[in-house]
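Researcher: Please translate sequence to structure tokens.
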Amino acid sequence: MTLDLAVPLPAAGPENKVPAVSLPPYDRAGLRVGIVHLGVGGFHRAHQALAIDELLRRGEAREWGICGVGLLPGDAPMRDALRAQDGLYTLVTKHADGGVDGRVVGSIVEYLFAPDDPEAVLERLAHPDTRIVSLTITEGGYNFDQVTGEFDTTAPAVVADARPGAVPTTVFGFVVEALARRRTRGLAPFTVMSCDNVQGNGEKARTVFSAFAALRDPDLGRWVHDAVAFPSSMVDRITPVTTDADRALVARRLGVEDRWPVVAEPFFQWVLEDDFPLGRPPLEHAGVQLVADVEPYELMKLRLLNASHQAIAYFGRLCGYRYAHEAVADPALARFVRDFMDREATPTLAPVPGVDLEEYKATLMERFGNPEVRDTLARLGAETSDRIPKFLLPLVRDQLRTGGEIARSAAVVASWARYAEGVDEQGEPIDVVDRLAARLVPLARSQRGDAAAFLRSPDLFGSLVDEPRFVAAYLDALGSLHRAGARATLEAFSRSS
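Model: Translation complete:
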């Protein structure tokens, strides 16, 4: 039997169940929307939507169904896939030994595409049943200066959305207009829950949304800042881009025809600040850690996992690899990454309650090496201008302040600069996917004559170009990359360990 998610699910029961995949055992017809999620992609569907699905399977959280919202024109394919399948999709967990688990997730009960009907999105956000608005809008979606942390009030879309009576197009316009409507109607504000890899994502969300609100009305800005809850979170699950091969695997091995399944590794972690004035689902029953202070967990993940991903991406691609598991199978690259974790990242971390950092780092290396996930280096290396300033440079500044090691961190930045030249060591083109590519690629190509040119971007690096110890390490690594290549550069680090 093949299950087609474009037609209604069969009634739960052993006679109808597809053996290879777990179907929702709950009645979706009576679910109410309590969460509106902005930015439905692979990660949300492998993480937050999974947690709600798990609660629903336990007979809980029936008032916490999810309405997904796409804000960008590029979200149209997700709209089409989810609407065709009534919000259903297959979540595939890929184990390192080749095993595959599948479940059909039913927690997304509605999907709205903002370019089609902005008013429908605003009214769903303003609806009394909506108590949480969650976000996966990427690191770059928060529109703040990488160095100062201040909200960019000059961005054209922001300026347009702040005009009186504007039909919103940005996340700021939608969220703030919906909050303003609730305030006018005497409704308490919903909780805004960021699930993005931004340090202090709750406070950062408070900063940017209240700053936008203040552009419309200073009093509204103060109210958003003071009255709206913005809990911080740390989220972790490697979720590569879905491929046609994944769709074929779902059909062949799981017996499901799915327009857009999502694949993920087995690991799942979600640490969440427990600050929800209008209530929340019992997420602790789905493996979520509810804590008073997320920061230790957040720094651990950003500086060990996310920063290490940047090390793997550029050095790996320059060595000729295309996938993360191929890159970390290279002993020199694996040693470089683990030494970076041990000698440069770990010294900047405070103790993390309930976590053995040595065990965590060993688990990370195993996760990076999972050959079934097939996480591409292209994905890890995309939008670096939004990533390295958040994941890597804060620990560099901590190490400079305390006199700690920074050579490997500087080499990661140098590997980005070499990668941004747009040509690999074999003369093959590299597709540099970055919002600043038009500026960064020419800068990178100029560095063979002016070696520090790439560092002279204060919006990315601040004053690091004026730090002699960092600049010396950076120039040494970049020179080695140009002269000897990525592999020899990594091997030199191995010999010096």
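Researcher: Any highlights?
Model: The longest strand covers residues 33-38.
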